[in-house]
Amino acid sequence: MEKMRSYFRQSFARQFILLVASFFIIFVVGATALSMYQATLVTSFEKKKNQIEMKMKYAQEIEQAFNQAFSDARGYLAFNRKEFKLSIFREQENAQTGLDALELAATTKDDKQFILKARQFASYYFGDLVPEAIEAFESGNIQKVLSLSENGGTASIEQFQFQMKTYKQSLNDQLDGAFRQLSKEQQIAQTAFIVFVFLMLFLLAAIARIMTKKIGAPLRALAHMAEKIANDEQVHNNDVIHTAREDEIGKLAQAFRKMLMSIQEKEESLMAHNEELLAQQDELEVQQAELEQALEAMQARERELERYNDFIQGLSNSLDRQEVLHSIVFNMARVMEADRGMIVLMNEQKTYAAFGLSPYGVEQFLTYVYNGLHQRLFEQKKPFVLKREVAASEKGYHEETMFVHDVFLPVLSNESKVQAILVFSRFGGPFSDEEVHEYVGLTKQISISLQKMELYEQTEQARETVQHILNTVQEGIHFVDRDGNSVIVNKQMADLLQKETIAELGGASYEQWARGLIEQSDAGKTLCDYLRAIIFNGDEEREPFVYHLPQKRKVIQVYAKPLYRNGERQGTVFVHRDITKEFEVDQMKSEFVSTVSHELRTPLSSVLGFTELMLTKELKPERQKKYLTTIYQEAKRLTALINDFLDVQRMESGKQTYDKKYEDLVSIIENVIETQKVNTTIHQFRLQKETDKTTVLGDRDKLAQVFTNLISNAIKYSPDGGNITVRIYERGNRLCVDVQDEGLGIPEEALPHLFTKFYRVDNSDRRRIGGTGLGLAIVKEIVKAHEGEVAVTSELKKGSTFTISFPLVVMARSREDERDIDDKQAHAHVIIVEDDENLAALLEAELKDSGFRVKLVKEGKEAIELIQKEKPDAVVLDIMLEEHDVSGWDVLKELKQNEELAHIPIIISSALEEREKGMALGANSYLVKPYQPSQLSKTILQMLLNKERQGEIFVPLNEEAN
């Protein structure tokens, strides 16, 4: 025990820790006890609260079930709806479930009494009252129902509802009581906590008083002695505190006493040294003044060097012209300590940068840069300084006379031409010759920077030009160095490597750029070996390599060429060429040869076989007719095949002509359907017309070819029969036609290629059907020529729908169109150019009978003169005229080259089958002799209507007059 007391006496910190630890233990124990008591109260309350709330929940469910049952019973008796009756017994189950749950949660006698009464009521209500009332209601005995209600039914319900309300109120009272009990107990706990806090504060104050008493008095005595020492007062050894304490205070007092003795011993020595130091101080002050002057000079030089350094860095840190000029003028102003200045390049744009100048001053300087004082710079190419009186606009608030000094500096190129001129102004003082000479040296640095900048701009322009040229090349071009690092790449190559910009590939390593290409390709390892062999092994004899990109559906051919400079290999240029179309064309050619050979051989075999039978055997007439019919059908099939080839060739060469008139699609489709019905007995055709606006401007024969191809395809590709529906309807300003079948359908991946020449879906079911793959390509070209669109939707095994849309035209007559058409015909003037007198007379009679005014002419020259003179409404022109010098072609060319006559409709009437040439030269229609004269009247009338009523009678829907 004595050792422990000695241990604590030797250290004030240990004594303090002992007191604080004791206080902390007492505080923790007391706080923990109070907290545990508080937690016990809250836990008890929460448990009781949860029990009451659970019972309230079950009570509400029971009440809701009974109320719903009461409501359903009244509803059933009032409205006789079966769902109310069923709901009554559902609610009986809900009430029973609630009672069971409440019984499990019951804790008091009141709970059990309520459950017993509720069960008795439920048994009475659902077991006796409701069934009896329903039975009476359903038997029509309303009086009994009323009797049941009056003789206790309603009273028992009201009594139960009262009991329910009373029970719920008792639960609420229990909850309120538990809360009040909790509040009361918490108040007691809070009071105990406050008392505990006051006790802890009292204990803490006692500890503080003990510690203050133990350390306060000794420290005050030590502080008093320290203050005496600080004030140079005499302190004797007897004044020092003598204490027997073993703690820090005692040790501090002993140390203080020893320190005082040491100070007194050294004070005399310090006084002697002090006099010596004072003498040295005077000498140091003199040296300090000299050093300060040297420091100021060094700092001034440092600032000057800093400005020069900023000037040099401004020239070298950027290659942007405007940025460099701003740096030059700003840093030169700092070096010169000028108040304002300007630099102007002697180029066409007079590029400049200014410091401290107004926009007006800059504009004035640029306007007169080649006049006045500046001319000396161009003539002498030497700097000069000018002193002038400050203008009133420069004085500001100064009133006295002031002077400004301007220095003019030329920047000379290597050829001693003035590249730029510098002008700076200083109000503070003149420019010395040494300064001007120094500035001339700086202009040489400026000249070098400007030349470097010009060289960079030229290089950058050349680089951009080369990059632009590379980007215009369709192939992907990629130049890599000997280590495979990307050096130059064009936009096509960046797209191929799935990069948004070319900059993403700048300096990319082989692994970075090759990974993306190899991952896309279906020839990953082979392509990797090819690239490595060329880049790293220098294999320059490699043949071009072909790889596929399945995701992009592309076929790429890559070849490489090494790049040498001064006999040393610098790298490799790779060229990636998209050969997808060539690849597909090769494939289609192969398929085309196979398909055509099959399509041609099949009908030819039939023709040759049946012909041989007819030549070598005696056949009955009916047999001969059957064979001839087969030969005729196969010949028609060959003709259709050849016509498809010719149509495609004409469309591709742009020689396909169209005789467009306003035609009714319904009649065209009906004729096609009637023709196609002959080819099938298992298909049913339906034509759905959902609009009356079925007129289009088109070539009747070509439109018939379109629908023939589509409907025949629908028949072929639905081999099991089914419905073929043609639906005509409007969509916006378009007239749409759907051709729908219930056949095989088209795979999704085949839809984008469906209208490609010679393309056929790669499927055995369709291969057996046959075909050249030209029908849909012809459909697309014809529809496109009619300003239409074609689309397809399909689902495998369910059929396909081809949709064609044309510009919609409607009937809309203007005020002038209210007149009778015969009256318009009577005013129409037609000139017939025909050398056959009989045919000319026939045509004249036909046109006059139709109400036209007609004039005849035989020769070409006479025809041209008459047409120029009378400017008819239409011209009927024969090609082969008696006058050999001027043919019908010459007349046609002459009329179309004349601006005043080019608008006149021309109908060619000729025995020559040269429709394409006639339409190409500008003819509006082409009739091949012989033809019915009435056809000529209809054609002319149609043209006149189109010409005179364009935009009025037949107009696109979106341009219809209001």
Automatic annotation (TrEMBL):
Residues 263-311 form a coiled coil. It catalyses: ATP + protein L-histidine = ADP + protein N-phospho-L-histidine. It holds the Pfam family PAS_7. Keywords: ATP-binding, Cell membrane, Coiled coil, Kinase, Membrane, Nucleotide-binding, Phosphoprotein, Transferase, Transmembrane, Transmembrane helix, Two-component regulatory system. It is an enzyme of class 2 (transferase). The modification 4-aspartylphosphate is found at D878. Residues 213-268 form the HAMP domain. GO terms for molecular function: ATP binding; phosphorelay sensor kinase activity. This is histidine kinase. PANTHER family: HYBRID SIGNAL TRANSDUCTION HISTIDINE KINASE C, TWO-COMPONENT HISTIDINE KINASE. The chain crosses the membrane at residues 12-37, 188-210. It is a multi-pass membrane protein. Gene3D superfamilies: 1.10.287.130, 3.30.450.40, 3.40.50.2300, 6.10.340.10, Histidine kinase-like ATPase, C-terminal domain, PAS domain. Its EC number is 2.7.13.3.
